[in-house]
């Protein structure tokens, strides 16, 4: 009986581990997405055609990280955003814009310090936050501002 119980526990542990690996593989498929100005104009908002009016073009809420490769707080925030991309999966987009490479785009949004985060809900106005926010604060903002939870 004891051997049977140990075998059953081992099988359950193996099955749970296999399921966790499957879930991790699926989660790892969701990553942050780098954006250029051309991508931004197609996927987020064409501010050149509509300079006075915000019109989001996406099909789900988005979080945009304006960053630079040399920025310490940006480097600290990057793995947190990757984790959030995996956790939220296909509920939201998490985009990254390198302000060194996309200076015109950064200027269009008045980015003066980095990291700057732009939270874009499906309805309503986008909201900006500056600095490397902790993961809990980011989740709260995603849930409230973007997903309306």
From TrEMBL:
Q: What is the lineage of its organism?
A: Bacteria, Pseudomonadati, Bacteroidota, Bacteroidia, Bacteroidales
Whether Disulfide bond counts among this entry's keywords is yes
Q: Name one Pfam family in it.
A: Thioredoxin
The species is Alistipes timonensis JC136
InterPro entries given in the database record:
Thioredoxin (IPR005746), Thioredoxin-like_sf (IPR036249), Thioredoxin_CS (IPR017937), Thioredoxin_domain (IPR013766)
The entry lists its GO molecular-function terms as: protein-disulfide reductase activity
Q: What name does UniProt use for this protein?
A: Thioredoxin
Alphabetically sorted, this entry's keywords are: Disulfide bond, Electron transport, Redox-active center, Signal, Transport
Task: Tell me the protein family, please.
Answer: Belongs to the thioredoxin family.
What PANTHER family does the record point to? GEO12009P1
Task: Report the leader peptide range.
Answer: 1-20
Q: Which GO terms describe its cellular component?
A: cytoplasm
Domain Thioredoxin residues, every copy: 5-147
Q: Which SUPFAM superfamilies match?
A: Thioredoxin-like (SSF52833)
Instruction: List all membrane-crossing ranges.
Output: none
